[in-house]
Amino acid sequence: MSKTNESLMQRRNAAVPRGVGQIHPIFADKAENATVTDVEGREFIDFAGGIAVLNTGHLHPKIIAAVQEQLGKLTHTCFQVLAYEPYVELAEKVAARVPGDFAKKTLLVTTGSEAVENAVKIARAATGRAGVIAFTGGYHGRTMMTLSLTGKVNPYSAGMGLMPGGVYRAQYPCELHGVSVDDAMASIERVFKNDAEPRDIAAIIIEPVQGEGGFYVAPKAFMQRLRALCDQHGILLIADEVQTGAGRTGTFFAMEQMGVAADLTTFAKSIAGGFPVAGVCGKAEYMDAIAPGGLGGTYAGSPIACAAALAVMEVFEEEKLLDRCKAVGERLVTGLKAIQAKHKAIGDVRALGAMIAVELFENGDLHKPNAALTGQIVAKARDKGLILLSCGTYGNVLRILVPLTAPDAQLDQGLAIIAECFDELA
């Protein structure tokens, strides 16, 4: 009997815990660039990119070739037992890309959550302090410490009780929702006044563009004031670039556009084109704060993933993907704003590079997020052959993370489907 999405969903539901969500009831069979084919042979345009993992597209030939070459050499030794050059080369190349005119070192791990966990460990060891300030709407992972940092309970930590302490929440600036830069800075000062002295805070962690929170871009002025505040109090600034990194915003790291450098930068997702590698890069003096044995992991910095990441960096150079990112962003934003002009439900279209969001409200009322319509658009688009994602504190934001390598014709096709969905539903 041929496999179907429905039959595989039944097997999945019997075998996989319900806590592992699934946005689309589809089982992928194969993919190429920005096209995914399911087990029933139906093709979809991929505007999700594995949640910002496939900036270089599915199965980029250069990346696959690099992985195949590495497979013929070795797949694992554990870097802490026997080292291998791809880890060191990737550490060097990431350090050269991360903003900051200072000596840097790079730790490689496996997942974004693991990168954030280690960034907090490094900050605590470097400062001798324990507290961390994070932001409303922030998303930093699903492990225990990263759930403390994540500014959204449902669904990420619902029913799990209280997360580890020592994390304090400040407001993320968002002009659309009435939170000014001054408001956000004042909320940090309230933490200092009401909850923890600056000398008890090891780090402030922030996404330059919020991911799950709704693709809100941190104002440059806010990031500069945050940098000055950290310098004033000896607090480390951590830029969580897991989703913004590897070229999604038009620069390899979003902080390049903020006018200041973080002390520590986390990265993952698109850095290796679909292979699991993540890491922390920061000031060498801070990165060296932990003694030998305090950092690492059995699979951390897998040679296969390192080979893939090195190929990703070559692809960015050879195919000028940062320029392509800007062109993709401009094309999509232009198309989306044309749709917005026809539909009051679209309250905002925003982007940094090709990290694009469309926020929906009831009749354009910014006080009434429209999660229901957002979900309907995602489902209707799928029926028409387009894979979209939603996000946002209120679930009312459509987000686009299409591979930067997608051809213009496919971008236009995706826009046409989105327009149809709004015409039919809004």
From TrEMBL:
- Which family does the UniProt entry place this protein in? Belongs to the class-III pyridoxal-phosphate-dependent aminotransferase family.
Q: Which UniProt keywords apply?
A: Aminotransferase, Pyridoxal phosphate, Transferase
Per its UniProt entry, which superkingdom is the organism in? Bacteria
- Record's catalysed reaction(s): 5-aminopentanoate + 2-oxoglutarate = 5-oxopentanoate + L-glutamate
- Transmembrane feature ranges: none
Q: Which PROSITE patterns match?
A: AA_TRANSFER_CLASS_3
**What functional role does this protein have?**
Catalyzes the conversion of 5-aminovalerate to 5-oxopentanoate.
Instruction: Identify the cofactor(s).
Output: pyridoxal 5'-phosphate
Taxonomic lineage of the native organism: Bacteria, Pseudomonadati, Pseudomonadota, Gammaproteobacteria, Pseudomonadales
- Recorded source organism is Pseudomonas xionganensis
**What is the name attached to this protein's record?**
5-aminovalerate aminotransferase DavT
Annotated Pfam families: Aminotran_3
Q: What is its EC number?
A: 2.6.1.48
GO MF term set: 4-aminobutyrate:2-oxoglutarate transaminase activity; 5-aminovalerate transaminase activity; identical protein binding; pyridoxal phosphate binding
Q: Does the keyword Transmembrane helix apply?
A: no
Asked if the Swiss-Prot or TrEMBL record annotates the protein with the keyword Transcription, the reply is: no
User: What's a GO biological-process term for it?
Assistant: L-lysine catabolic process
